[in-house]
Amino acid sequence: MNDLLTHELGLNTLLVDAQRVPAFNPMFRLQWEKAQDSYVLLYPEGMIKLNPSAGEILARVDGRQSEADITDALQQAFPEAGSLAGDVHEFMEVACEQNWIRFI
Fold first, then answer.
1. Most-buried pick from 7, 12, 48, 101 (CB within 10 A)?
2. 33: domain range?
3. The domain spanning residue 62 has which CATH number?
4. Going residue by residue through the chain (104 aa), what tens digit of pLDDT does each one get?
5. Which residues contact residue 22 at a Cβ distance below 8 angstroms, ignoring those fewer than 6 apart?
6. Pathway involvement (predicted)?
């Protein structure tokens, strides 16, 4: 029973969190870097090369779309990927911990 309750609480948290709207920390700027053939995050001290998944997620961060909107757009762009909600949520948490994004 506790496992079911934990799962339900986790799902509810995911649903609530999905309504958050991510925006970039003003210290970071996303850019396609042709020389790197990838998206990068630029900041005053340097650059972070992003893997393709991170780049696709962050390319949709505009300060207007919620995490759920971004997930829906990714599902439409990559229908063969299956459910992406958990992966997008996990990445958003990491990006927030790294101070690349914040939720407004």
1. 101
2. 2-103
3. 1.10.10.1150
4. 333 334 444 555 555 678 999 999 999 999 999 999 999 999 999 999 999 999 999 999 999 999 999 999 999 999 999 999 999 999 999 999 999 999 99
5. 61, 63, 67, 70, 92, 95, 96, 101, 102, 103, 104
6. Cofactor biosynthesis; pyrroloquinoline quinone biosynthesis
